[in-house]
């Protein structure tokens, strides 16, 4: 650590409690507008403006239902839950051997 500290330009500290508490919280999102940070949005499920962002957050994950309970990566879980969407039981395509989740 001492050997590389002379080349450090920026230090970031985690004050959210992720190091001391078990679990994550989703505060919100900060969209970009014309290559600049825009106004932070706390509750994205209430916004119709960010349809593509919400669709991406609701579909780009590795979550699945196990015994009716959503399961997967903790970050994916929080991100998906923040969209307010619901994952239904997956449907299986036997011809392509793919499993699809139905998102509402």
TrEMBL record:
Keywords: ATP-binding, Magnesium, Membrane, Metal-binding, Nucleotide-binding, Phosphoprotein, Translocase, Transmembrane, Transmembrane helix. The keyword Glycoprotein does not apply. It is found in: Membrane. It is a multi-pass membrane protein. InterPro entries: ATPase_P-typ_P_site, P-type_TPase_V. The keyword Magnesium applies. GO terms for cellular component: membrane. GO terms for molecular function: ATP binding; ATPase-coupled monoatomic cation transmembrane transporter activity; metal ion binding; P-type transmembrane transporter activity; polyamine transmembrane transporter activity. Its main location: membrane. It comes from the Eukaryota. GO terms for biological process: intracellular calcium ion homeostasis. This is Probable cation-transporting ATPase 13A5.
